[in-house]
Amino acid sequence: MLESPLSTPVLWGLLIACGLGTWLLRASFIQTAGAWTVPHWLSRALRYVPPAVLAALVAPALLRADVLFTAAWSWPQPAAGLVAAVVAVTTRRVVVTLVTGMVALWTFSALA
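Request: output the structure for the sequence above.
Response:
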């Protein structure tokens, strides 16, 4: 068995410190929510953060560049992504897009 570079108390202390730090950071934004206003240019720019994050999470899962169009390439993920994209453009509803994309992925995976 490999020996850990950190002792158990040090590891627990590190985990608790990281958890407390992230909690304090989030709590500070919640506590100061009404104390200051966000500039218009910043609020306009922040509207694009959720779609950008979602695209960064979804795109690698749909198109794996290392196996694209090779023998190891799997077509159900890009096909389900295309179905979900069409539903997103036509309905503009997130939940409908997610449900339809998952159903399409399960269906295409069963067919593959």
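The chain has two domains: 1-34, 47-112.
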